[in-house]
Design goal:
Elements lengths: L1 H9 L8 H18 L6 H31 L7 H5 L20 E3 L2 H6 L10 E6 L6 E6 L4 E5 L5 E3 L4
Length: 165
């Protein structure tokens, strides 16, 4: 008991930050946050663009591998939509989700739509696929079914949309 009364008498228990000191710290933290947060604002957009490029690259690479095997075997080169979406036939796992609309299903589009990279029904489908094995040479086009802007530059100071990748 004697020790507690000595501490109170010395002022050891009375030390605390004043309101002004706390406000100065809050202002400094606010200024730092205002400087740092905008630098990380585009990180989500960069991640979506990179995920889209990775998904497109993986599927297109799998289609190319399938095509090589089929050409060697003397079969039609490109997979049908059913073969493309059947796990283990072209892709060894499920179709990746399009990071811009979270859809992983694929729809067939016409050659004109594929050539123009037209977005068709983006609320229901993540990817578009056109295949014509009877053309000379055979043609297959796989692209994202979203027209949202990515962080991938187009070479002229602008940015490409997801369906342009």
């Amino acid at each position: 008991m004697r020790r507690v009364s000595t501490l109170i008498a010395c002022g050891a228990w009375r030390r605390a930050f004043t309101f002004v000191e706390v406000m100065v710290v809050v202002v400094i933290v606010g200024i730092l946050a205002a400087i740092v947060i905008p630098q990380f604002g585009g990180v989500t957009d960069d991640a979506k663009s990179a995920a889209l490029q990775g998904g497109l690259g993986g599927v297109r690479s799998s289609i190319a591998g399938y095509r090589a095997r089929q050409v060697i075997a003397g079969n039609t080169p490109f997979p049908t939509l059913g073969q493309l979406t059947t796990s283990g036939t072209v892709l060894q796992s499920e179709m990746p989700a399009n990071p811009f609309n979270q859809k992983s299903n694929v729809q067939t589009v016409t050659q004109a739509q594929a050539n123009a990279r037209t977005v068709v029904n983006p609320t229901n489908f993540g990817w578009n696929y056109f295949v014509d094995n009877s053309a000379n040479p055979p043609v297959a086009i796989f692209y994202a079914n979203s027209s949202e802007k990515t962080t991938v530059t187009d070479g002229s100071g602008g940015f490409r949309t997801a369906n342009q990748l």
